[in-house]
Every structure is written in structure tokens, then in C-alpha cells.
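One thing: can you check what follows?
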Amino acid sequence: MIAKLQRLRAEVAFDRAALERRAQELAGLELGPSAEAAVCAQAAVALHHAYGSVESILLRVARQIDGDVPGGGEWHQELLHGMGLAVEGIRPAVLSRESVAALRELLSFRHFFRHAYAVELEADRLSVLRGRLQAALPRLLAELGELDRLLADVAARGNA
């Protein structure tokens, strides 16, 4: 049990670092009205990967802590919603309502990005999404830090 918790902590830290790298990458991009297609593509990929990093963390928590991953066509939405809920006797909410709302918008973009092959990326929309990620990032990182503290406490109690 302790080894699984420590591994989960390491995997969450890895995904968290990936999220931070994508956010830093996005911060350095010029997404003004005359942004080149290559810059828009780079921003879209970074937004896609930023959400993917968070979703990876949520999947790991669902598997290792909750013991279940949502299924079906709406599993991405259900996973996100579920991580905003406290599960009595299992875990507190991993994400706040504010983080769930911000991430829902990024999930929607990721879905669009994966399926809209013939649509041009709009720098203005990418800039808005980048801003939403940047605004949500401090709270999200704090919540992930809280998750790590919880996992560390449970592992320490298991060692005692």
C-alpha cells in the first residue's frame, strides 16, 4: 500500500511538472491578431498537453484511490466532475469548483482540437484559453499540492 502511494505521488509530480512546462511554453508565445499558423499550432498543442497532464493525474487518482475509472462516452466529463466531489471515507475533493470549471473549458478545447481537422486555429481563442489556464494555474497547483500532502500523510500513517 505504501509503495503504491509513493508511486502515485511520483507519477502525480511528473504530470504536474509537465503541466507547468506547458504553461510556461504558452506564456512565451505571441498570440496576437497576426500570430502565425505555426505559433497557433504550438499553442494548441501546449493547451492539449496541459489538459492531458491534469487528466492523467485525475485518472491515476481514480484508479489508485477511488478504485474505479468512469466509462462510456462521457467518461472525460464524469472524471472531471468526480474529482470535484469529496468521497466520504475515501478522499476529499481533489479539485475546487473553480478548477473544475476552468478545466472543463480546456477539456472542451481538447475535444475540438482532436476532431476539427479542417478548421483553422484562431489566435484570439487560443489567447483566451491561455489566459484561463494562467488564471487557474495557481489554484490548481495548490490543489495538487494538497493532494500530495494527503498522500504523504496516508503513507506516513501506514509506515507508523
